[in-house]
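WP5 quarterly update. Target: DUF4405 domain-containing protein. Source organism: Ornithinimicrobium avium. Length: 502 aa.
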Amino acid sequence: MNPDFPLWLRASHLINFVLIGMLLRSGWEILSSLPRLWWRKDCAPGTEWLRFTRRQLPKEEGVYTSLMDEKSLSPLIGLPGRENVGLGRHWHGLSVMLWVLNGIIYVGLLFGTGLWRRIVPTSWDVVPEAWESLKMYVSFQTPSIEHYQPYDALQMLGYTFVIFVLAPFMMLTGVAMAPAIRSRYPWYVKFWGGHQGARSLHFIGMVLMAGFVVMHVGLVFLVHREYNLVHMVFGDVDTARYAQAFVIIVSTIVAVVLFWIALSYLTLADRVRAHKFLVPTTEIGRRIFLNWMRPRSAEQTTYTDEDISEFHWTNGLPPTEEESPEWIAARDNDWAGYTIAVGDGLTGTSRELTLDEIRELPQVSYIATHTCMQGWSATSRWTGVRLVDLLPERPEGANYVLVESYGLAQKMYDNRPREPFYAAYDLETVYEADTILAYERNGRPVDIHLGGPARMRVESNHGYKHVKWVRSIRWIADYAEYGDGRGGTREDSALQAFNGRI
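Structure tokens (predicted):
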């Protein structure tokens, strides 16, 4: 047996291969929901540095929603494919959790067993040796087997980079896109160039990781495969077992690829079943790493008025006459008849508040970056009243607050008629200082296409929890009694998670 390839090493290698494929495919599904990349913080039309669509964006705000830009991936490519970004995000979250856990165990055993020396160079001699190896590979030659102990110098540098640089880089840029991180530690997100900088860097890291996987698998079969395959399958040095190892490796790769594809089709076969499995499972990670973070947009000094975006994307279009004649009538009357019902859903009591009455309540103003789960972002100054200052005292048995809109969902995942938009918040979110009903943006009344005259701001969560065109706000006992029982319209219509902190 070869002590450089123990069973734990080979097992973690296979697990990593499975998880990397799940990560890449679910990441492509997320990217396809907004197939554009920016370095700018406001995602203005025509300023993308890279796009995977031929659609041209209109310059005017509010006429083109980000869901209109979504592309449909084949289930052979995306996980799960077919415009299911909610489920794609859940698969990505689960894959990340398992990938990080597998990586921690792998690195821990590397250092615990002393096998780190087989990957991490201990002498600067590795640099000129790697250069010589590179010249040989480029000239389509192969270093002799004596240079592999168990890897040659170039491979050692490559593995060191991927394990100790690229993998942590992907983790760090990935969490920088989480609203919980951004609203708590805005300096960290700004370090990466804002949300769009982190997103673009994460994409570049993905390209490097995908390229490494292709190159790595290719070299296994092209360079001294009679040794490589036996090492990887049996941990042995007997090249007489090469044929057996070749059959096992090829069969395993085929089985893993079929598994990746099967995950997509099994998910699409029953999306509700997949949602019921994925959301509670990934909630473990949110509960441990994110739920304790409280936003502090009103206290932060990282973002100033100079960071305010010139352009703001939107999702959802304002209510129409058919959808909400009350809202249309109030709009046409300069909001004179606009009211928001605030009360207690347990007893059915409520009171109607006008915009003037809402403006008389204690005011809060802060600068925050809005992010959509599809990937776009925009920074604005929001002004309004804290949700807790609007609500009556919490009655006994009330565990959530339900906010309803005058508008409807954009579309339902099962193509049923569009339903009124709503979102439920747990008590921790309700009492966050940055959970507000906003009536001004950048010192002016909130634009109609962005939810005017009043919309929710829930800075610890993605935009699908920020109800626009607010109609009513009330205490409730359990969100399971409303809609499909998932806690919000985007949870019902696009199978998002109730907890939108990442």
